[in-house]
Amino acid sequence: MKRTILYFSYLITFLIAISGTSFTMKQMNTLNSPVSSETEACLDCHSVVTPGIVEDWSSGIHARITPAESLAKSDLEKKVSSPKVPEELKNKIVGCYECHSLNTAKHADSFDHFDYKINVIVSPSDCAVCHSDEMEQFSVSKKAHALDNLRKNPIYSTLVATITGLKTMDKGKIRESEGSENAKNESCYACHGTEVKVTGTMTLETDMADLELPVLSNWPNQGVGRINPDGSRGACSACHPRHSFSIEIARKPDTCSQCHLEPDVPAWNVFRESKHGNIFHSKQTQWNWSRVPWTVGKDFKSPTCAACHNSLLIDQEGTVIAERSHDFGARLWIRIFGLIFSHPQPKDGRTYLIKNQDGLPLPTTFSGKRADGYLIEKNEQDLRRTQMEQICTSCHSTLWTRGFFRKFDATTAEADKMVLAATSLLQEAWEKGMIDNKNPFDEHLEHIWIEQWLFSANCLRYASAMSGPDFAGFKYGWWKLNKTLQELRFYMNQNH
Amino acid sequence: MKRTILYFSYLITFLIAISGTSFTMKQMNTLNSPVSSETEACLDCHSVVTPGIVEDWSSGIHARITPAESLAKSDLEKKVSSPKVPEELKNKIVGCYECHSLNTAKHADSFDHFDYKINVIVSPSDCAVCHSDEMEQFSVSKKAHALDNLRKNPIYSTLVATITGLKTMDKGKIRESEGSENAKNESCYACHGTEVKVTGTMTLETDMADLELPVLSNWPNQGVGRINPDGSRGACSACHPRHSFSIEIARKPDTCSQCHLEPDVPAWNVFRESKHGNIFHSKQTQWNWSRVPWTVGKDFKSPTCAACHNSLLIDQEGTVIAERSHDFGARLWIRIFGLIFSHPQPKDGRTYLIKNQDGLPLPTTFSGKRADGYLIEKNEQDLRRTQMEQICTSCHSTLWTRGFFRKFDATTAEADKMVLAATSLLQEAWEKGMIDNKNPFDEHLEHIWIEQWLFSANCLRYASAMSGPDFAGFKYGWWKLNKTLQELRFYMNQNH
Amino acid sequence: MKRTILYFSYLITFLIAISGTSFTMKQMNTLNSPVSSETEACLDCHSVVTPGIVEDWSSGIHARITPAESLAKSDLEKKVSSPKVPEELKNKIVGCYECHSLNTAKHADSFDHFDYKINVIVSPSDCAVCHSDEMEQFSVSKKAHALDNLRKNPIYSTLVATITGLKTMDKGKIRESEGSENAKNESCYACHGTEVKVTGTMTLETDMADLELPVLSNWPNQGVGRINPDGSRGACSACHPRHSFSIEIARKPDTCSQCHLEPDVPAWNVFRESKHGNIFHSKQTQWNWSRVPWTVGKDFKSPTCAACHNSLLIDQEGTVIAERSHDFGARLWIRIFGLIFSHPQPKDGRTYLIKNQDGLPLPTTFSGKRADGYLIEKNEQDLRRTQMEQICTSCHSTLWTRGFFRKFDATTAEADKMVLAATSLLQEAWEKGMIDNKNPFDEHLEHIWIEQWLFSANCLRYASAMSGPDFAGFKYGWWKLNKTLQELRFYMNQNH
Lengths: 496, 496, 496
What we know:
Chain A is mostly helical.
């Protein structure tokens, strides 16, 4: 009889566990989790001062596993990629102190917090203590250089400055000024990342004692290309939200949708209306979002952003279909947004280094010629394309997959031609002096042209890449590409 | 052995209970729920005539608890806020008759329903029999006066009439007419509420007997500022859908999204693309949406509309972080939509009473001067702002929170300046007679200007308030603020 | 004690079953599922070659039930509608071979696949072997003829060709060309369906042997009006995604949203912001999406697209509220999109057969006169409307329902008038020679006019039909109807 009761109590524990209820500190102590004494000190205050963070952390895997336990897993299952984790970290769960106390010497944002040296920002370099592969992959990606790819590229930085520039009226004339740091931080840099620097210190009164805190510029920010006070690039929290650092959340398209949205980068919106997105929305609560590696068909039944672009995928036999990569362009051969025309992926994540045949830091000229030396070659394109096809053929026949890619090739080419037509019209307007090409982004006709490539052509290309027919038709796409062209011609005829 | 089987049957019951299956009437009778005989009579027919309503109600808390049981709960847990509930209601569950038979004398919509006096509409005054605090808080809010805030304000009523006005062509000229009641009810008043009056009676044949029913004007409607046949204001069902009156549904952003949507009030859309929204979409099925009070980090891990704007929040120790309020502006110091420029919240929910320095019923003049006497003072602003900061600091550091609010201050100021520039341009057009300012809402250039403040500036302000970078950038926001200004200038130059 | 353990193991099995884990092949064999030897051969390879498909199929009902078992169910529960299923199919679960080997003689896409004759495409005619009623209902619907309704209608085909037509610049002039097959397939035909033909064969090398495969034109495609290589019309997979063929997915609005989206057919978007949509988004994970028949209030608490438009609905007593139909217009009396003005539903699914009083294949003239002989009569309209009202009154009172329909009638009439005004303006522009009416879809003023009926009026009508106030107000709807009219007048005055 006793054993029956025992079974029953196991069961209840199991049910509580699967019901999503988080561990509480009390439970953790009962289970004798190996929490460091420093983290215990953090938790003592912060479970009162910032209870939300503590609860969130305690629901995550960092609160349940030690690096040593993770290192003992098989290669495919292991999430700690660093071959060696410092001894002092190995046998404690990953708590507040374990992360916020790393590489203090490099952290300009380090401060004295009741006798502990604490860094405000946990940077990719800190995460790399355990997750070195991810850091390494990420650091060569376009994402890692997302801020400089705007700032250090004179064309893009003009675009940013013009769009976010405050305008005032001066005797009937629009007086332009460059966008404020604030305006950039709230819009472009919110995703691309800001450069966070320590600009001074401030005193904060607390119930316990006064704290001398570093003052950070361009903060808060969680942009993917953030430059941190320790000099590192990136914000892992852009996709793995603090403090659960959930792989579940990172794997869901909602994460990508924080930045990849219509009208300029309609990845999420196109996915949403695709059959893949339909199945995801219908069935997602029944999938296993946390298992590593991720088994096609078993853990998830329809691809998400992560499945195609970065997760480690296997089939039921354990054969690897795709390797994990935190360089999110690693499986891509073509780049379908971010510039006027589609083009092969750049070789270097630092796109501001590109120089095209007109001497501009752009992957194509305004007439579409590609800056070939800077872009990946045919054989690398084919390699990546084959890799992606392999993911498709986990569920689709070869016939289907080839047909799909054939359509994509044709559509990106057609989208480029529709942009070319609009660009020709604009060049006519520049040549005839209807508008001034000193700044190609500040006049009404130029705005219409920008929408042609940045909104409508991007939407059409994405619609093809991910099968969202509405975005190919009336939601931007062909409708708008066509309408915009006639609209440009209409205005230019009027002004002639 | 028998006990084993017993445990197993408990388990099955438990599994069924958590699987979301609702109580059926049969089960209810088995459990001897204290249903009033009147409600039993309602259920007898209505489980056949309108089975959906009955099932929905039976899945809600009203079908499972008596007011007496609720009153016995602790102050924080209690949802019945009225100090005294009438004796005859106390010990029965809250069924059809308990709600539809209240305050009959005041209800012009009361009718004889097979010998019971039944009100068609259950109004906030009826709900207040048990939930008096909520009614009291709500009744002073802008929401309670949402209809009159449009109707009794000559500026807004002109806007409504112009937008919803049917146009016909008369010899090449657009002939305008004021919007029909129907057009207003379907658009603006669908959210703001209609005035529901009894205009007569009608006979309805039923299987049992003929019914003499009241005929209601402007019905159906569930707008938040509805004026009911008993003279009360509001519709609790706007957020707590009939007949489960679920706190779960009301607490989710989907409820707010019925009205607070882009392009004019993009609250839901910005939340959707924010990190908070991302976490909500990913994890919501694992949260406890019904617990009262609501524990930060434990019951929910990312704020929703309700968490920041009206729910009773506590930490794990039971300390209150924020008091419940059904005046949804109670925690707000600034108003970022609804008028040309941002401004401090009005003191009175009846915004039509405001008079600015130009004598207009608007919280600012067209050049941005604030109608100070009508708006909350600095100390009240600070009080509310501190209250909101306290919610943020449940999960964020003081540094983070202050930085966040600093950005918000700067961005609302910048948005206002972009609106000011467009307004100056429009004033030039009015002064030069390009357009006619008799009705500032009916000409093409005026429409462009309206979109500047009502769409683009609102979007930018919301994007800052809730961290949705796309709405600050290319989705309305800075992109459109800038484009619209150049577009206005472009047209005005052409017509010069 | 042993029995206790047994119970516990049952329990674990049960928990695994409800946790969404799919059957694996191994489990299937253990359970002695009646899999055909042919399907076993398919599974042997394809669980390695296309593991995603196999897993998806094994999670669906086809992998768990034989036609004979389905036929034994009660009339209301039965999903196999064919009175007779071929003997050889009856007692095996519905596996790969059972579907891909049907009617081979008719299938131009049939090929020799390691000694089995396999059809690439499983067509509606194949599904009809078991589901004949669904095929029959579908085959007379507008959906079944969705491709020809574009292609064979000269007006619509001009619209399609113009929108998707590639434009190039030729000495400052926009040179138009008709849309490529690819452009049409990616946009309009992605939903309407393509005509899939076998154009040749190709050799595919595989690990086992070379395969001689049919080459298909206009493939892949899952449009609802696809014309298949066996001559049949439709793609069941448009709504029942392969290879689980889940009724759950088909019943959820996400499925319909693949095609029915703003700006032209904003069904999903309006639902999303309606109270019905709010409740759906909040509670959907707690509903029973697979039960047949579908019980109002019990299995679902708020209607979805399927509930109102095609599912078999009953009340708790088992009384039928609405019969199942796979003619998705069968419950509709009015058509609110797809043409300039609203009009009664066409009698025939082949809308290209209509001829209006101007001799055009449109259900109304440009001034709104209806092509009466081709549209359903008053009595049929009333019949369908009553049917729909019956669904509403499962949850709403008669008063409410009538009021709702009264608003809908008024709003569709008002939307039509706003379109009429814009059409009059356009006719003026045509008559005065400002623009050329040879192709009514290719000039800027015409594009503005198209948006009036195809975007704004559709949005207003849908907003009324499904109670989405924002789409009636500022999101398209009245705001845009009004703005567009003034915009047209503004341009025409400039060009005068």
